[in-house]
From TrEMBL:
The chain crosses the membrane at residues 32-51. This is Methyltransferase FkbM domain-containing protein. It comes from the Eukaryota. InterPro entries: FkbM_mtfrase (IPR006342), SAM-dependent_MTases_sf (IPR029063). Keywords: Membrane, Transmembrane, Transmembrane helix. It comes from Magallana gigas (Pacific oyster). The keyword Phosphoprotein does not apply.
Length: 336
């Protein structure tokens, strides 16, 4: 889902004005048809009521639910995640395996900058999204990462159909490319797509602040617009997420650095970034790229959170490119 779409622009409904007209014509005819009029009138009313209700309720603005592609594999368990230390080149290993303490309140200056960022949301989001989706600009998310080499380790959170993974793997051939995709139908596609690439590591779950399970309807083309932050719960497709910190530790962090984490996960970016920052683990990521979805209806205070993330990220990283409230990459301060 693009960072620009307001929820209300998705899904299509037509009003039934035609039926009303037909009903009026019938009323002029004989008694037998009168009953029909009443029935169709009731139907129109019912349609109209449910249609207008659906306008206010984002959960009904769903495209048709897709099949889950319900599969159970070992790769949907956190226990299946193994350390990347043995595969990691010495250059990117950390001797001390220590995590610096990050938990520090915002300074007055940071608070000021945060509130400026919140105030300018409308303008900056329109500008950021407008520029990012214009022409070929969006492909900066693939083309920007020239620092990646065959020694690099990339984490791709929200693998989707593998478009980003494909582009980056073809351009830079990173030695280890880890993809997380919680939606089984998409995960199955990814397994097929990358079955002959031994550098690709796939897991069938997502990340969040804590371990959790959701039951959702899989939406969009093959599931690419499924978000648990859009009132889309209560479907029958299981979607698993795990505690971000636990997952990152399992990979071998903080004893190794990660060259790039790229996050495009329909609203889960907020929890992941907040967790990485508050735990101090963020300092183990040399580059951090993420898409922001500030308009999903069930996210709590997305604008405030984005603006706070900006201030906290700026302590350890600098902006490499940015389309505000849309897509951006940050680079760790020690990297020239
Ligand atoms: C998914 O798989 C589980 C276990 O095989 C099964 O119990 C469940 O009914 C399946 N759900 C759907 C929607 O197919
Ligand atoms: C996530 O896991 C870490 C490490 O085990 C733990 O300290 C933290 O409390 C967990 N977070 C939540 C929200 O459960």
């Amino acid at each position: 889902l693009r960072c620009t779409y307001p929820v209300s622009e998705r899904g299509g409904w037509t009003s039934d004005g035609l039926v009303v007209e037909k009903g009026n014509r019938m009323r002029a005819q004989q008694g037998l048809k009168l009953a029909l009029v009443c029935v169709s009138g009731a139907a129109v009313l019912w349609l109209w009521v449910s249609w207008s209700r659906s306008l206010n309720d984002p959960t009904t603005l769903t495209m048709k639910s897709q099949p889950c592609g319900n599969i159970t594999t070992g790769l949907s368990r956190i226990e299946s995640v193994s350390s990347l230390l043995p595969k990691r080149s010495p250059k990117f290993k950390n001797q001390e395996c220590a995590v610096p303490n990050q938990v520090r309140k915002l300074s007055n200056k940071e608070k000021h900058l945060k509130s400026r960022c919140v105030e300018n949301f409308k303008r900056d989001h329109a500008r950021g999204a407008g520029e990012f989706w214009k022409g070929e600009t969006q492909y900066i998310r693939h083309k920007h990462h020239r620092y990646l080499t065959s020694q690099s380790l990339v984490l791709d959170i929200g693998g989707n159909k593998g478009e980003d993974a494909d582009a980056m793997i073809q351009a830079y051939h990173p030695g280890i490319y880890v993809i997380l995709e919680p939606i089984s139908s998409l995960f199955t596609l990814l397994v097929e797509k990358f079955k002959s690439n031994e550098n690709v590591v796939l897991y069938n779950f997502g990340l969040a602040a804590k371990d959790s399970k959701f039951y959702v309807n899989v939406l969009g083309h093959g599931g690419d617009a499924t978000s648990v932050f859009e009132g889309n719960k209560g479907g029958n497709c299981e979607l698993k997420v795990f505690n971000t910190t636990n997952f990152i530790y399992r990979l071998g962090v903080p004893c190794l650095d990660i060259d790039l984490i790229t996050i495009n996960c329909e609203g889960c970016e907020f929890e992941i970034l907040e967790t990485l920052i508050s735990s101090g683990l963020i300092s183990k990521f040399r580059h951090v790229q993420f898409a922001t979805h500030p308009l999903l209806s069930h996210l709590e205070k997305p604008v405030q959170r984005y603006c706070e993330i900006q201030e906290r990220l700026a302590r350890t990283h600098v902006i490499d490119y940015q389309f505000k409230f849309c897509w951006e990459t940050w680079k760790r301060k020690d990297i020239s």
